[in-house]
Structure formats: structure tokens, C-alpha cells
């Protein structure tokens, strides 16, 4: 009898995902959802053929070198900066991710952050909850308009384009900066104009970041970049922590260099710069860009189908490192 591949699921997933994997594999699943330390993860990977992991799991060279049987790492995320992909390629480990299924949900959250920050939603809700609202006044809690404003999108991939589509109902002017300019027909459909990074920062009322995290995008938004933005501008980061220099952003918000920020991701999360908690002009959410039930279920099942395809010698649908 041919033995089934042995796989580890490092964090809690939906029952139907475990059932699907169990049809093809021997599954060890961390349904208690207690995060493994690096050493615990390494030990549990002993004798395993595949790993389904999340962005909280760090797979570095030292860990991978101890996992001599590992053939597949299936990441439940679009980004994969938690995995040393070069080391995986060197060991013949296939890496997969889950693009596409979360684009619209993530774009919704970016837009929600922009609206909430512009209209100071979390500030005024706190006021009401604290019993401090004494009645309507003409100049009370003035925000800024989103409609007809200029939005700059840094990173015009699938999610960036999904954000741009949402601006059409708000009659926004859309600028974008991308490593490669998108096709002219996409620009026309979205009403988006390509420009330089510096020009986008100088002209935009809102700046939304949608670039992956890498050594090239580390602290893309730093003190110098923040100083280029309009004093009344609002920054939205719903992509990855580390793209923004959080310490520089805290200073910029304190000093009025920019008006406000909406953040779903942070450097060193779940820890965050303590300065954010002292500020009223920042909206904070805990990395929930893709967090709808439909989307998270689709992400987990996408990761599962990637894994089974790779283990069966097929080309996985979302193969990061073809080897």
C-alpha cells in the first residue's frame, strides 16, 4: 500500500479544508490555533512532506535546512515575505500563495480606511461612547471629502486596480505609480493616470499603498516621502508592515506633516509603535484586509488545492517559485 503524504497545518483552518486534505494526506492540524515557536514548528515538520502556513510563520534558511523531507509550502496569503523563497528553491521546495481570491475584500478595507479616516469615524464614535457629545454644532468634527479628491495608488496590481474601480462612484481623480505601467485600455477603463512616485506624493489628497513587502519596498514611505505629501493628505497602508517607517509616520502625524493615516498593517505586528495609540488622527485595524468569512474560506481552500496539486506532481495553480 502506498502511504499518503504527511502534512502539517500550522494554524487553525476551516473544517472543510481539513476534510479535503484528509482525503489525500495524513494531516496534523493545529486547530487549537496556538502559534508555534520557530523551534516547535521545525520539530513538527520532521517527517512532513508539506506545510500549510500563514504569514505569522517564519520559514528561514536555518529552519528549512532541518526539514529535509519537505516538498511543498502552501502559504495562506498573497504575500510570502515570511518565507525564504530562495532557500526553498535551492532545496527543491515548491512555494505557493493565494492571489486573486482576496482582491475585492482587501480593496473594500482600503476604501473603508480611507472613508473612516477622512470623516474621523473612530474619533467621533469614541466621543459618543464616552458620553461627551453634547449636541450638533456647525463646525464640529470637520473632516474632508473623498468625492472629487485625488487618490494616488502606489502599486497597480490586482488589488490596486480593484481600489481604482471603487473610485468611479466617488468621481475621484486617480493617479498611480507602478514598477510597470499598466495597459492603456486599463488606464482608460479606470480613469487612472500614471506618474512618478514623487509627483504622486505631491499631488494626492489620499495615498493608498498596495505594494508587496521586500528589501526594495522597505520603508518606501519614510520621513522624506512623508515630507513630499500635502499637509492635508491622508496615508492608507493596507498592504504590509515595513513598507512604511512607522516611527517616521508617528512623528509626521504628531507634527502635522500630513493630516491623518489609516493603517491595517504595522512593523513588527502584532506589536505596534506605541505612539499610534496616543494619536487621534489615525485609524487602526488589526490586519483584517481579507477578513470576511467568504474570502478567508476561499483563501484556505486555495492553499489546500495548491498543496494537493504540488504533492501529486502537478503544476500548482499559484506557484511562486517554478523549479
Helix proportion = 25-40%
* Biggest beta sheet attributes: 7 strands, parallel
| Separation, N- and C-terminal Cα atoms | 29 Å
- Under the CATH scheme, the architecture of the largest domain is 3-Layer(aba) Sandwich
Strand % is 5-15%
Q: Find the CATH topology of the largest domain.
A: Rossmann fold
- Gross morphology: globular
Strand line-up of the largest beta sheet: 8-7-6-9-10-11-12
Describe this protein's structure:
This protein folds into two domains: 6-101 and 293-311, Rossmann fold (3-Layer(aba) Sandwich), CATH 3.40.50; 103-284, NAD(P)-binding Rossmann-like Domain (Rossmann fold, 3-Layer(aba) Sandwich), CATH 3.40.50.720. Helix content is 35%, strand content 15%. It has helices spanning 15-22, 38-44, 61-66, 85-91, 103-118, 121-129, 158-167, 184-190, 197-203, 223-228, 246-255, 293-311, and strands at residues 6-9, 26-29, 50-53, 72-75, 94-96, 150-154, 173-177, 192-194, 206-209, 234-237, 260-263, 282-284. Helix 1 runs parallel beside helix 12 (293-311) and helix 5 (103-118) crosses helix 7. The two termini are 29 Å apart.
